[in-house]
Amino acid sequence: MLYATYSDREEAVIRQGVAAIRAYYQDADEQQRKDLLFCLDRYLDPWFGYQLPYAGEIFRFLEEIIVSEEADIDIREDALQLLSDYGLPSGILQAGLAKVPPSLQFDAKICIALTKGVCYMGFNLNDLDKYFEKSELIPAIAVDVRTKQVLMLAYMNKESLRRTLETGYTWYWSRSRKELWNKGATSGHLQKVVSIFADCDNDTLLVNVEQTGNACHTGSYSCFFRQIYGEPVTE
Hints:
The protein contains seven helices and six strands. It is an alpha+beta fold.
């Protein structure tokens, strides 16, 4: 698997490309839409050896197609298949499940259930209190599962942890803004959760993620880029 980082200018171009995909879909006929989904299959398929940016936005786009009542049933079925094969529902599918055609309801529920099965990994949504016995906030250390580098330290409350488990993407509690925030929701630098571990005292979380783009708001890959002591680290 090949992973790449992108400059701000390159990411802007890529985001324009995602917007263009949406625009093309809206104006396309049925055959063109099927051709587009076939291209997205190639785009998302790890067999081709690439981890492409903004896959999360493509997954949300697929969810919108699935719950769109105007889309042809075959198109919605193809979109659901792609989401099941390559992605994790972000919540749009679950929220709009009633709009999914009856013939796809079963598969859609399996897709959602599989997502939860992957994300829960030892967590019980009815048993989150033990992680907040000492404080309403718990430190969450995000680590890039590919590079093993520590990306950032943030805090979760019970609701942000719940949303992280339910969506498969990190949610944190901003102590300065006093609100929940979905990491990368505005920048596109999403963190897809691979696994979560609690420490021996259940008062710190280690969150292994697939990081899209850079984790730090400064534009750095990791928030830990200022060395204040010790010898330079060499490979």
